[in-house]
Amino acid sequence: MNKNLADIYDKLVSSYPEQKEYLQAAKEILSTLSPVADAHPEYVKEKLFERFVEPERIVCFRVSWVDDKGEVQVNHGYRVQFNSAIGAYKGGLRFHPSVNLSILKFLGLEQVLKNSLTGLPIGGGKGGSDFDPKGKSDREVMAFCQAFMTELYRHIGEFTDVPAGDIGVGGREIGYLYGQYKRITQRNDGVLTGKGLTFGGSLARTEATGYGLCYFGSRALQTIKKDSFAGKTVIISGSGNVAIYACQKATELGGKVVSMSDSNGYVYDPEGIDLALVKEIKEVRRGRIKEYAEAKNSAEYHEGCRGIWGVPCDIALPCATQNEIDLDDAKKLLANHVMAVFEGANMPCTLEASRYLIENKVVFGPAKAANAGGVATSGFEMSQNASRESWTFAEVDAKLKTTMERIFDDVYKTACKYGDEYDLLLGANVAGFEKVADAMHRQGIV
Ligand code: NDP
């Protein structure tokens, strides 16, 4: 790492020693930006790199609500408004007990580069709460969402900050959040994306991240290996929104998905995953992946979600959460001759794991590029809301595919220019950063 960038990282370590995920993301990004620092001494002088890794603003608030037993519950709420150089803050809300500032700052920082790569005028942000929707009744989820929005509404807006979903925040939660926003403000604007189709949502938004991941993956396999998903064995971690639609598209493209998981364990089905059954369990019953093996004779269930990386495969799609593949898991994948890993989740590979895969010439699609289809389609939802239009599924899907292929091409070109065609991580960081840096430079010291 360039000395100046290394000093910035050291300063972050001393300022935020406990924020491990944020430091991990900052290190991963700064360690690839030396070519930009060398080419732009004015950025160094303007302390642009220091400014880039610090959020513009963080809002923290209390969320008080009443559960079904009549007891008062108190959770923490956050919105990290990371960078607005190229447009309004945009990024999801995560509801999960593990949520804290470190996780939201890492997600926000990644989001800035991801949103830049989409080519749309959207800045980066992220938010959420340590509230756990799992096991809560619909009424409890609604009470929480209403309390959360009662504080958040004053910090967001169509032209300032447009949140969306993430882990634990799907169509149900976005509906409740939007209802409360509208009740307080009397405004029917595109302040949230991922809305229901009857009140401003976009067709194909639900499918977008998983589909986009496979469009990116197809382009990468075709360009680097002259190959495709056809006939490949695929494993997918998670069984939430991203995992389900990645499974659908990978199967449509000719792959055979044999394994999926949740935070308790994974299923292995050599006949190929029956996605209708997974959707029934996860989307209708809100059940556990274990129930898949109970319903299907050809499938086995294994306790412990990490075991999935030992299942032999050609293509791995981590679609659950951060740091789910460490160096040992990456070694297991390679020992089983994996040819490609495309990140559907945010930062699912540790820095050591991603470096190991890249050095061993595995086609590695970094999250900020490979999973950008969700936010790109959120951008399409904002366009439809602003123009009072509804595009067809086919129109949105076609735009999504073109966007993901263009993102791959930009990232690949940048990777080749600065080093190695397999280093798509460097390619994504540099390509995403260049646009934000130019905007920050032109807007002066703010
Ligand atoms: P969902 O809540 O729909 O699903 C999350 C899945 O991951 C569930 O199967 C869940 O299992 C599993 N999971 C969550 N936490 C853990 C954990 N600590 N260990 C193991 N498994 C875990 O979320 P999404 O599918 O929306 O998001 C998945 C990932 O994709 C996240 O990293 C998110 O940031 C990223 N992403 C999502 C986008 C979107 O459009 N939704 C856009 C871009 C990125 P369980 O039910 O047991 O908790």
Structure notes:
By secondary structure, the protein is of the alpha/beta class. Helix content is 49%, strand content 15%. The chain has helices spanning 3-15, 20-30, 34-39, 41-45, 48-53, 101-117, 138-152, 171-185, 205-225, 241-252, 275-284, 290-295, 327-335, 351-359, 367-370, 373-387, 393-418, 424-442, and strands spanning 57-66, 72-83, 89-95, 124-129, 161-164, 233-237, 256-261, 265-268, 300-303, 315-318, 340-342, 363-365. The strands form 2 sheets. The chain has a 7-stranded mixed β-sheet, with helices on both faces. Strands 1-2-4-3-5 form a 5-stranded mixed β-sheet, sandwiched between helices. Strand 7 (256-261) and strand 8 (265-268) form a beta hairpin. The longest helix has 26 residues, at 393-418. The mean pLDDT is 97. The protein binds NADPH dihydro-nicotinamide-adenine-dinucleotide phosphate.
